[in-house]
Specification:
Four copies of one chain form a homotetramer.
Chain A: E1 5-6, E2 11-16, E3 22-28, H1 38-48, E4 65-67, E5 71-72, E6 75-76, E7 81-86, H2 108-115, H3 131-149, E8 152-160, E9 163-164, H4 185-201, E10 207-214, H5 228-237, E11 242-247, H6 258-261, E12 264-266, E13 269-271, E14 278-279, E15 282-283, E16 288-294, E17 304-307, E18 313-316, H7 330-353
């Protein structure tokens, strides 16, 4: 209820602060019998971890995960799986200067007013570092969904500030520091240059991320409030710095006519996917397609007006190690959140309707 | 868990189908001592009800609400408040022709595959008619929030298809059939003409809706998953036909720099509101600002390709009474969902931190 | 969260007060495809309803149930099932004299202090009348469990005050006004005489009720907090007037040795059932056996000391229509609560482990 | 939902197995601003830990707790508090002989059938060792309740097998190895002798435990399903080996008349406490009084009939280190569960009704 648990049947409860002794999570509801070791989880954490290029925060964290429970002889037992990640590179001093004032665009102000007490070290609980345990938990969900339905998750950056990245192919994603689905070397160079300039200026920039899930059973989602797309929106808007979410045609739907938007069906399947794989809150079996808008990092070196705890005017500059574009590392996080939503709905559907029929064979989705 | 309850502490459980005997809801968690009669609820239902202009469905429903419980001598008792609305204008025959096939863009296909059984009368449970009980429940939340903090909710249509409606003033909203915050008679006439053309063509169109909440205490929202903005996104994406949600600057954040996006603070308050009233998932005390994209109605007269339950190709046309733009009646619904989210968070905050301090007096928000 | 919903996956949200316009519930999570009409529900309500003998309250209620939603063409659709029961015999005047003071042993005092407002008509929300909707909801659960696993529920009164009722056979239960599993006419006559004396004295008496569930799959229940027996204890202690709950050997376990208590196993099944069908919080496949202690009705004619709202001493007598032993009508209610617990756990188990295997064939349970 | 989280607003999610690397929990919902260090928690863990006398398991565990998050500069921040306890004395070999068969009275059988996989080391997740994290979490709840309302918790063993322990005074509890509220040296010696004989025989025995909470505000509890007593019954029956729960007069209520059972009120307070501090599911402000029945330990050296996984008959003896009476260490656990229930309800009440008024001054409770 205090908002540190994600999911109802595959529930992930996270804990920890950016510069505390450790971060981690407890996953409750993982079905028994899934082969699982740290080696299933670590690669996903590595995709998200800091320090992988000069365009992300230079904090040095190995993000080594330890499974504390829920696995016996390499197989899940149906009991809670606890994941522990020790923080290695804590530098409380970097943040001393902002303990008494509020960074514009940052959670400093609201935490202070909500709780009357605030851990200022690295943003404390509000740090994007807290997405690591979720990425770890989602690695387990991804494995189960893959094994059960062949589901796969893919994500890419489709826009960096005003640089649009036209989609070419998923295979390009791991080959550049931006998760761009593009093999256009000139474009990548332009992105690198833009990031270098920002870093030099002590500023930051927004980004747009696209994620999809493929091979989803028909029928996941609840019809009224726990619609699949509502839960996806909740999951995505809950990622640090996200300010907008679209499913399928998204805001483009505003200018579409019904005769254009509604995806027609043939015996071979749907024609088009304006729905983004969801109709009436329930999966159609098509690809689930999601886009999110990520705001620019709020911790920047550029001095800005603010106030201190007593309401007096101050100028704030932030000197710690930060991602000049939090969107860069957001791709694996957005995939993770999508996986957690689908996992939860897969179990919920099984509760209500029994073991899932993937789909009717004559509909090529 | 099956997705028919909205909210955790102020919980609204709805029931009913478009053409069943009745629709309604049970509201659990309303604080005791709130003066309440049907007269507090009916006006909100009237703003949303069908048949108020030629641009919305012509179904005739008085949407008369009856309070069945939870109120004694005109005051809430802290026990569940049940609201009942009898369906008056049921016409099952209008839908007979689509019971065996799937309308493109409609929940027909997914309900059928999920449940193996489907109530085709007026879309059954997937009908937008099911937003009526929520609007009723939200009237109670609005009254409590207004009384407690002076909170007010406002909404308007900001785009109808490709017709953008520049914001002039909230006072115009009730004076046109579109909830447009504009007194520009020529613009309204253009919207009317566009709707008339669509109706003639048997087609439909999308829309964009903006809603805001004013006079919100600082500190509402939970930091990680039940972020205030995440719950708003969940609530909005859960409204029928919504495909996109933005908070504050929304997708515009993608092209903003950190030095531009982060709202600076002065002793007199924030400068700007790119945050949309939420930082780190917690309310800042500024206006909460939300925009949503609504797809065109999927039930249209234009014939389209589809399949029947056996997978055979069919042409589908829909002849019932439908809103040619579901966005028109979405404004009070979006306000209602926003009110329910804030009500729930207000109670949650009170659980965790005690009675709410509205905000520090020297910050003019 | 405000405690008016029972169950997580098969959720029953009730509403209403003893003398309000109606009582009822919304059942969310019923699997689709279950044949269902009012005729499946009414007989269970009739077993519980008032006025069936001179030993229970003489309030005249037909307790006629109306299904408002969730059923189409006689089959559940997977959407919420709302049940409505109109109150017919409201007599607010019977309770006027106690509106300003607190009956000893009654919820009057605590409701008043909790909410600061109280509906005194017939005990308002605290009336045992509110068990009617749950009995209705449980009729649906019973039908599903019966169809799925052959599960049956049975209950009887095993003690009325100091009159112990030795178990003879379940077939006797409907043949006497006490739900006694006894064909001993002399014993029944003694119970009738005891009740007549109490009624004459304006006093009331406690009772003990036993309920069992037969043909339960192995494996229902969660290991740590949502143990099957913990949820049963929660359900039973939540019934009006219950002060004690036992599973299996219950308080007799205190004096047992481990070598005696632990039910041994053979290839033909368990020897004995001290466990009451639950080990480690999970069903063994044996009968689930439960006993509950029910306190005497608190509304009695005998004058007693109390205070009024201002803390001044008063004498309180209650003249309304009451059950002189609330235990008499508790048998169908206890069965109902047990059915709701098992239904919820059956769905939960299905979510986590897939479709339930009833049990290994070589274990005769 | 998978039953590893206790509480809704003060939520404790536990993880770990008896012989895994670590056990622990995440506490979500602790109000901010509570001074907290490990020194507040360790003493409660020490009361419960193994090896404190020859009458409990000889497993050597320091049960040293580490706070991983949620505390900054010695004060809770409102974010999740993770507690970690490393397992130090793991002996997997002790349990090798029972990995393939089922101990009578133990969770072996049900875990195996539920999950199809089972961690047999020390009972895995079903071990009473898993009560340690809850005791740790409850130390925090106790501190908050004490600070807020002056609430205190007390517990004692009132019966060991057939040896009844008459209550003398709470001050005796820490001065004997049984948590007996008795200074009767002869009685304690008799209990010691009984335990010595059991240990020699390789058998075990049941016990009865009483716990109370004092200085509780009036008004905690929800009226229908989340009644305070229902939640207490759930919490208590969920403790390992508990088979019965009573509130107030408990099973004694069965033979009481209404004129005797209902606690009368005077301007100075209640006369008597048959209610056990709860009326209509809501606290009266009197002491909350609870009794529980604990079955004898199921792991005993005495050989018994059982079956193996293939259904073949086997004889089972258990040679590991076990408590010959699990009831002995149950007292601090029962106190802990009671504290967690009251904490949760205190927050829930605050959500619904605002900051709690402890009680009206003219009622001496």
């Amino acid at each position: 209820m205090s908002g540190n648990t994600f999911g109802k049947l595959f529930s992930v409860t996270t804990f920890g602060e950016s510069h505390g002794p450790a971060i981690g999570c407890v996953i409750d509801g993982c079905p028994p019998g899934l082969p699982l070791t740290e080696a299933d989880i670590q690669p996903e954490l590595d995709r998200r971890k800091p320090g992988t290029s000069r365009h992300v925060t230079q904090r040095q964290e190995s993000d080594t995960v330890e499974i504390l429970s829920g696995v016996y002889q390499g197989v899940t037992t149906g009991t809670p799986i606890a994941l522990l990640i020790r923080n290695e590179d804590q530098r409380s001093k970097d943040y001393g200067n902002i303990a008494e004032s509020f960074r514009p665009g940052h959670a400093d102000y609201t935490y202070w007013h909500k709780y009357g007490v605030r851990d200022p070290r690295g943003g404390g609980r509000s740090s994007a570092r807290l997405t690591a345990p979720v990425v770890g938990a989602a690695a387990i969900a991804k494995k189960w969904l893959q094994q059960q339905y062949g589901t796969v998750f893919k994500g890419c950056m489709s826009q960096l500030g005003d640089i649009v990245v036209p989609f070419q192919d998923w295979s390009h994603v791991p080959n550049n520091p931006f998760f761009a689905a593009s093999g256009d070397a000139e474009l990548i160079a332009r992105m690198e240059a833009a990031m270098d300039a920002l870093r030099k200026d002590g500023d930051s920039i927004g980004a747009k991320i696209d994620v999809i899930a493929q091979n989803i059973p028909v029928g996941l989602g609840q019809p009224i409030y726990d619609k699949l797309d509502a839960d996806i929106a909740y999951a995505m808007m809950g990622i640090n710095a996200v300010k907008g979410v679209e499913i399928g045609a998204g805001f483009q739907s505003v200018v579409q006519k019904g005769s254009e938007h509604g995806d027609q069906l043939t015996p071979q399947g749907f024609i088009g996917n304006n729905a983004g794989g969801v109709l009436g809150g329930i999966s159609t079996g098509q690809d689930i397609t999601v886009s999110i808008a990520i705001k620019p990092t709020s911790s920047i070196r550029t001095p800005r007006q603010s106030i201190d705890k007593d309401g007096h005017p101050v100028m704030v500059e932030t000197f710690g190690r930060h991602d000049p574009c939090v969107g860069i590392r957001a791709t694996p996080i957005a995939e993770a959140m999508l996986a957690l939503v689908l996992m939860d709905h897969a179990l919920m559907h099984r509760a209500q309707c029994g073991d899932v029929q993937v789909h009717t064979p004559n509909i090529a989705l």
